[in-house]
Amino acid sequence: MSSPTCPICPHQPERPALNAYFRLSAFYLFYFAGLGVFIPYWSLYLGEQGFSPRQTGELMAAIMVTKVFAPYLWGWLADRSGNRLAIVRSLSALAAGLFALVLWRHDYAALLVILTLFSFFWHATLPQFEAITLDYLGPRRARYSHIRLWGSVGFILAVAGMGAAIDHGGLVWQPALVVALLSLVWLTTLAVRDNHAAPLHRSHSGSVWTVLRQPVVIAFLGACLLMQASHGPYYTFFSLYLARHGYSSAATGQLWALGVIAEIGVFLLMHRWLPAIGAPRLFMAAALITAIRWLLIGAWVDSLIVLIAAQTLHAASYGLFHASAMELLQHYFPGPLQGRGQALYAGIGFGIGNALGSLAAGDIWDRYSPATAYYLASLLCFIAFILAITAWRHTDSETAV
Predict the structure, then answer these.
(1) CATH number listed for the domain at residues 14-399
(2) pLDDT in tens, 166-187
(3) pTM
(4) Best CA proximity match to 271, nearest among 145, 400, 130
């Protein structure tokens, strides 16, 4: 009698597929747990070290700037060599080792160098692991969100736990916790096996430049850049913004966690929404809702009720945006272009977008006010919405995904 098939990977027997599911999910769990300890509280840590908002913005931008070129470089190498998993293992190990240097050096120049080198390897890890995950899923890639949601779970546990820990013991242990979680990420990559059923992607099998010349792809990547640039005030200064308005670190952690809980709800439903609504419409909805979110945070930060409502909109700002973008990437960059498509998405959106957003947020914070940074972030999302709706106005939703 034949073995039952798994709902995640229908072409493999149930037990091996489920083992792969748990191994893949473990990577996302620890990867985003590391981000949960790092991103929301790093600006507070830098503030404790005596850095100004402008210097904090520059150090955060240093983390993001390597996303402009590092993901594409490693994506090109992975597509060309076919050794994607080996590259991911090496990148995660190097990232953990480099960030460990933060435990010994705290001056601005040293941190600038360490964070830049660390991010050169770290930011290339996730895009290539995303390609590995999608290779495993094959035709059932709409189920990607069921694996990715474990990253949201890890982020929630980390951000909420870190907020409570800060209230009791301060930020002194933050860098060590980040190193520990980065090390766990590397260990999970050792547990993942090569998917020999997946095709090896060779660079000569397709031309990425042919894809990039398409106006709809240019508009899509431009909208991704604007969306991620709008997150600059949030990822860099949201915790500091709340602290200046009297919120405790525990409350800050709970607000961060609330946003990710809402994100999980979207990931659980995306496999139904994608075929019913279409990725282009979901992407446009994410841009418009995110514009509303930043406006609420900028104007009503002193209202806990409004902040709670704004944080639930993270379901659109990240969950809806990312899941629909992943589906569009698979359409525009199929098969042999997958690694470089993921790298371009990471480099243009999370690299250039986040770096520019972090730099601009720090400058606007100093020159004008934190609220002004959120108002401008809202404007960027509205422009992204207009760009997306213009790009897909004459495109049938069924053929765009």
Answers:
(1) 1.20.1250.20
(2) 777 667 788 889 999 999 999 9
(3) 0.72
(4) 145
